[in-house]
Amino acid sequence: MEIIQSAAPLYAVLVSLLAVVLIGVSGRNPNLRESWTIIAALIKFSIVVSMLPKILDGTIIEYTAFSVMPGLDIAFRVDPLAMFFALTASLLWIVTAFYCIGYMRAGKEKNQTRFYMCFAVALSAAMGIAFSANLFTLFVFYEMLSLCTYPLVAHKQTPEAIKGARRYLFYLLGTSIAFQLAAIFLTYHFAGTLEFAVGGILAGTAPNGVITLIFVLFIAGIAKAGIMPLHIWLPSAMVAPTPVSALLHAVAVVKAGVYTVIKVVLFVFGVDLLKELGLGVVLAYVAAFTIIVASIVALRQDNLKMRLAYSTVSQLSYIVMAVALLTPSAVISSLMGVMIHAFGKITLFFVAGAIYIAAHKTKVSELDGIGKQMPFTMVAFTIGALSMIGVPPAAGFISKWYLAMGAIEANQLAIIVVLMLSTLLNACYFLPIVYQAFFKPVPLGESDKMHEAPAFMVVPLCLTAIGTLVLFLWPELLFNLARLVVASIGL
Amino acid sequence: MIAHFPILVIVVLLVAAAIVPLVGRINRTASWLTACAGCLASFLMAVSILSTVLDSGRISYWLGNWAPPFGIEYAYDPLNAFVLVLVSFVAFMVAVYARDSLEKELDPHRITPFYAVYMLFVAGLMGMVATADLFNLYVFLEITSIAGYVLIAVGRKRESLMASFTYLVMGTIAATFVLLGIGYLYMVTGTLNMADLARLLPDLYHSKVVLTAFAFFTVGLTIKIALFPLHNWLPNAYAFAPSVTSTIMAATATKVGAYALIRVMFTVFQPEFEITVVHVTQVLLFLATIAILAGSILAVAQTDIKKMLAYSSIGQIGYIVLGVALMNHLGMIGSIMHILNHALMKGGLFLVVGAIVYRHGFTHIQDFVGLGRKMPFTMAAFTIGALSMIGVPLTVGFVSKWYLALASLDAGMWYFVPVLLISSLITAVYFWRVIDNIYFKKTEKEEPATGIQEAPIGMLVPTFVLALLCIVFGIFASFPISVAEQAATLLLMR
Asked: How many CB atoms lie within 10 A of CB A79?
């Protein structure tokens, strides 16, 4: 495997930080300000894409930015695994940048400069997490992501918004300090390094009991992955403006969580160690529990965003459960799930925002006949929902298929039952919305004329919906990347 | 000239203290300039001393050329050269800041004397750090204490006097204890020089007199550093003093006390005294744990920002003592780093509070609503300081926490890791409350848009320098760590 030195990952992180400054100084001129966001998003995506050919050739890009103290470096490493998260976040940022313009202006939100600045910081943090070469770098950006999204969640500054944001931060920062940092201390103490390495760094360094403890601390410390019972922050974060819920709480933040879990599982503990201790299976069942319970809770939510939030909690655990099975197909499912779920869920959140802006509706029970008023939006919603349920031709089918294969490989037939049950539940909480939208009459007193949200919102959500279909039809790129990961960890 | 820096670094401050009242007859600006110049000169000399020490090892300076142990010796190793730079730097920053702040907070006729006493206070601290003679240490301890009482009492609030008086009583008890300790050691060894004592004491470790002396030292110095439960004097002293006093005391005085404790425990007495003879580290570990937790919890309960910062200081002192009492290399590095870190963070935070008092005159946390809009730069500095206190990575607060946690694991005392982490969480709680008020809470009644009302540039710059250093040393921590490492190696040698 060839390793080359290149500062490209550092630039990918820095470009949005530079944009923060530019956004800050052009706060008085909204058009200029938003164009900085879009330019930064385009540059970031092109940097990420520019690394893609080398990565597909099996090359790995490394770069050490600087050393904070002996043993702790800020260092980047771009491998196929990193590409899943980096591509997802940077591509969807472009779409979201346009959507934000539509949403924030149509909603006449205040403090937009702060909003765009924090958004850009969040994307830098996401890139940093994607490309981190060691646990310390990952932790730095993980904390940065928690902190810079706080103003976004508290954006409305109403008492409820502040309450929700506090709970959000309490869970994310609290668990990362109390558990993740403790796990990092222990890892460094026993392994003497925090560098991610194929096969893990902990094997043979500590007694089994201690390794189990470290594993539990890590999983509890990565609350961004939304594993129950540390998922409460995600519904709380729904007080945020919808673009935030869409990109951050369906893509960047939560995917940072599951991505961290994947990295910790594969590169800190290693497949062999977890198999030997049987910890993978335990994690898989905890995730399975989350999948079922979160789906049941989602059934009972009348607020559309809350329903989507619980759906996210459940879908995240698919990814966690898949990687915890530690078999080739399951790992492929987990990696592809990162991107596939992102496209589907961001579409659904975009739709929720569009409905709020165009029709001022937030509840599922109010959506009768909305398919006539907002046909494009609701078709996109249907595609997103199909992806969540796992029905072709939406991409969700692919990750579910591989997950099922992985469960068979791991001889965990109970997981297949969980999968079937949860698919049923997914259908139960998404399909009624589709039915209401297209087949129920418009409520009395409302016209059934077409009344879509601004084009800045509708076009992005159509694009992401189309993306969901494209991923199903042409998944080769994802396959190739996922195979590289699986090959590199020797499964 | 350079050969005499080891003494000039203190003398220049004393001389400045004498000149300040004289030039004060011209105007107050002249006395301010003199104070700043004195601190700056002292800082530059301290830097020169530190670089000499790092290049060519220990410096020993004989006062009046009298050879130790008969004469007074000033000795510099990486530890005290490092603390010397730190103290003089913070003193300079606070002196620059003092001008606008004092005009607002003191009666005009008290400002010039304030500068004079301020210089004495700093000179006392620097002397405590520099000297290698125990009695000399006591003399400087008294100079700095007495100056400290004045600096607190000069505040306009009625409570200032009472706070100063409490501190005076406690401080006098502490100083007396230290003096008794010195006397007892002199009784059995006949020397006051630290190196000489280190040579003579090991044979006398089981003498009752030496044990008593050690007890007096420990208790006396733990009062000075306000280690829980001997912290009672501190919150009021910080809260009711003028902002300049709170800052310099919080940032330097307790740090120098901690330095003196380290000196006594590891140079005058040797590490094996604490390990084999008296198990004082067990007690210190216990008290440090309680200090860390109690300080943080009490800080949550405060409604006044200065009190909150004061209780937080009590917790932070616990960190320093914890690292010392772990008796290992990593712990010592952690402690020394925390001396630096806490000086920067807490100094910066108190300067922010001073700026708020300057502009708005309140210190109640609930009044802070909307300050983020009115004083964006000052509040940015506050946010940096707060993040550093929480221990977010890439700030200095993380560096010392990292070392203290690893030291606990190294010593096999894993239970201190949760203590550190819980205290970080509580710190996050009490600082986040303030940050929420500053940036996110809305005012109940719509105020007329007042625009930006920043602190004057003379206050803003020192505040920002300290805040930025919290980040600079958080990102490029290797240099201070290498100094701390050398110091720790020397202290724990043998």
From this structure: 23
Stretch A62-68: mean pLDDT: 89
- Chain B, residues 383-402, CB within 8 A of chain A, namely 387, 390-394, 399, 402
Q: What is the pLDDT of residues A233-248, one digit of tens each?
A: 998 888 888 888 888 8
The tens digit of pLDDT for each residue in A161-182 reads 888 999 999 999 999 999 999 9
Q: Among candidates B384, B383, B470, which has minimal Cα distance to B434?
A: B383
Q: Using alpha carbons only, what angle is made at residue A366 by residues A363 and A367, rounded to the nearest 5 degrees? A: 100
Contacts with B402 from chain A: Cβ below 8 Å: 69, 72, 185
Gyration radius of chain A over CA positions: 21
8 Å CB contact of A162 and B440: yes
Preferred mutation among B394, B433, B434 to probe A, highest tally of A CBs within 10 A: B394
Q: Which residues of B are less than 8 Å from A140 in CB distance?
A: 393-394
Locate the chain B residue with the closest alpha carbon to A143: B392
Interface test with B, best of A20, A25, A67, A69 (most B CBs within 10 A): A69
**What ipTM was predicted for this assembly?**
0.88
Question: What is the rounded distance in angstroms from the CA atom of residue A193 to the CA atom of residue A182?
Answer: 15
Residue B444 has pLDDT above 70, yes or no: no
Please answer whether residues A244 and A112 qualify as being in contact, where contact means their C-beta atoms are separated by less than 8 angstroms: no
- Contact residues for A410 (Cβ-Cβ < 8 A; gap 6+): A281, A325, A326, A327, A330
Domain ranges of chain B: 292-494
| Chain A partners within 8 Å of B336 (Cβ) | none
What is the least distance, in Å, from the CA of B440 to any CA of chain A?
A: 6
Evaluated on CA atoms A125, A126, A130, A131, the torsion sign reads: negative
pLDDT per position as a tens digit, B66-125: 888 888 999 999 999 999 999 999 999 999 999 999 988 888 888 999 999 999 999 999
Residue of A68, A148, A214 for testing the chain B interface, max B β-carbons within 10 Å: A68
Cα nearest neighbour of A114 on chain B? B439
A173 within some domain = no
- Using the beta-carbon criterion (under 8 Å), do A177 and B421 form an inter-chain contact? yes
Whether the CB of A69 is below 8 Å from some CB of chain B: the reply is: yes
- Token pair, residue B152, equals 């607190």
Residue B1: both structure tokens together: 């000239």
Q: Which candidate from B409, B441, B475 shows the least CB-CB separation from A68?
A: B475
Residue A333 counted as domain residue: yes
Give the total number of structural domains in chain A.
1
Residue range(s) defining the domain that contains residue A483: 278-491
SS (HEC) of chain A: CCEEECCHHHHHHHHHHHHHHHHHHCCCCHHHHHHHHHHHHHHHHHHHHHHHHHHHCCCEEEEEEEEEECCEEEEEEECHHHHHHHHHHHHHHHHHHHHHHHHHHHCCCCCHHHHHHHHHHHHHHHHHHHHECEHHHHHHHHHHHHHHHHHHHCCCCCHHHHHHHHHHHHHHHHHHHHHHHHHHHHHHHHHCCCECCCCCCCCCCCCHHHHHHHHHHHHHHCHHHCCCCCCCHHHHHHHCCHHHHHHHHHHHHHHHHHHHHHHHHHHHHCHHHHHHHCHHHHHHHHHHHHHHHHHHHHHCCCEHHHHHHHHHHHHHHHHHHHHHHCCHHHHHHHHHHHHHHHHHHHHHHHHHHHHHHHHCCCEHHHCCCHHHHCHHHHHHHHHHHHHHHCCCCCCHHHHHHHHHHHHHHCCCHHHHHHHHHHHHHHHHHHHHHHHHHHHCCCCCCCCCCCCCCCHHHHHHHHHHHHHHHHHHHCCHHHHHHHHHHHHHCCC
DSSP β-ladder status, A72-78 and A3-5? unpaired
